[in-house]
Amino acid sequence: MRNFLKLTAMSLQSQMYYRTSFFLSGMGLHGIGVVLFGFISLNYSLIRLGIFRPASMLMCLFFVLCGTIICMSSYLLTNSLVFWYDAGGRTSIPYMITEIGSYARYPIMIYPKILQFILLFVVPYAFIGMVPVMILTGQHMLSLCAALVLISLFSLLGARFVFYRGILHYESMGM
Fold it and tell me: Which stretches are transmembrane (predicted)?
């Protein structure tokens, strides 16, 4: 079925439906282990911080959803740029953005202001790690939650826009 998706031109919503409907069928022991380790380490961290409550667990699920949207949107947007900047199918833009995102593993306050701006607004990977921690610890909770939702939605809509503009720009060879 996965080869079917590579060969068929279909809408983004249809592709996401097929990919999520086959999520569990394509998930092996490695994927189950990663999810289990993440769940255990998340609960352990919440217990150690003294904030293990049902509300914090629901917030963590919300953070995972928003982080997934931001990551998928970033990957979709940067890979959609290949419609315009194709170098024989090889472009380094997605790799570059992923490497910039690796800086968000650490608190962004240790970086210069320009890199903080990039990690917060240009490539919003700081909203995956640092901002949820700040919300869980009670720092600027309402404003950061609103910003997280807005950045997630903006990322999703921006990636969708670029993808569909790229589809309009796409010219198939031999058809």
Answer: 21-44, 56-77, 114-135, 141-163
